[in-house]
């Protein structure tokens, strides 16, 4: 099973995330979400080789249907279950390098790197938005929005709802 989390973020967030759990029945619905997505997390289960293999299929789907500049991240979940591991951390890292995306191992159960994953993807989205604003801003127009981890945590800047 592959979890696909898609961020649809207006300029000043909150983010809306959609979790399709990588299920085939959501494939046609998911392609519609890709069009407006600003960030996509592809999550595989490190205890399930098949879920890792499916990441490549989902990336092809993203390349076909999403914007070319969508932020992407690969997450290997269940890193708290090392005794049942079927996919090495190195294989996950290599896949991420091959596709030019960031990689983290997480554990939703133990809350390992979950917040870091969301914050990293959110920060990368905002960095890209700031860059676009700087490139297209007219003289006297608004400047970039600055986000730091400290201020983001204090104000709960990234409020994501799982639908």
TrEMBL record:
**Mind telling me which InterPro entries this protein's record contains?**
P-loop_NTPase, Small_GTP-bd, Small_GTPase, Small_GTPase_Rab
Q: Main location per UniProt?
A: membrane
Q: What class of enzyme is it?
A: hydrolase
Cellular component terms (Gene Ontology): membrane
Q: Which Pfam families match?
A: Ras
Membrane topology value: Lipid-anchor
What subcellular compartments does it reside in?
Answer: Membrane
Q: Which GO terms describe its molecular function?
A: G protein activity; GTP binding
Question: What keywords is this UniProt entry annotated with?
Answer: GTP-binding, Lipoprotein, Nucleotide-binding, Prenylation, Signal
- Superkingdom of origin: Eukaryota
- Enzyme Commission number(s) from the entry: 3.6.5.2
Q: Signal sequence: where? A: 1-17
Q: What is catalyzed by this enzyme? A: GTP + H2O = GDP + phosphate + H(+)
PANTHER family, A to Z: LD44762P (PTHR47980)
Protein family per UniProt: Belongs to the small GTPase superfamily. Rab family.
| Protein name stated in the entry | small monomeric GTPase
């Amino acid at each position: 099973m592959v979890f696909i989390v898609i961020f649809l973020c207006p300029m000043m967030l909150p983010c809306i995330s959609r979790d399709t759990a990588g299920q085939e029945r959501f494939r046609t619905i998911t392609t519609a979400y890709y069009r407006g997505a600003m960030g996509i997390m592809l999550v595989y289960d490190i205890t399930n080789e098949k879920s890792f293999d499916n990441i490549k299929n989902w990336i092809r789907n993203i390349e076909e249907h999403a914007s070319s500049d969508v932020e992407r991240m690969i997450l290997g979940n269940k890193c708290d279950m090392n005794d049942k591991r079927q996919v090495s951390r190195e294989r996950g890292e290599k896949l991420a390098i091959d596709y030019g995306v960031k990689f983290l191992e997480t554990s939703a159960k133990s809350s390992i790197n979950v917040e870091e994953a969301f914050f990293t993807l959110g920060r990368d989205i905002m960095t890209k938005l700031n860059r676009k604003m700087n490139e297209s801003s007219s003289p006297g127009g608004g400047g970039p929005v600055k986000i730091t981890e400290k201020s983001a945590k204090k104000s709960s800047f990234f409020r994501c709802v799982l639908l």
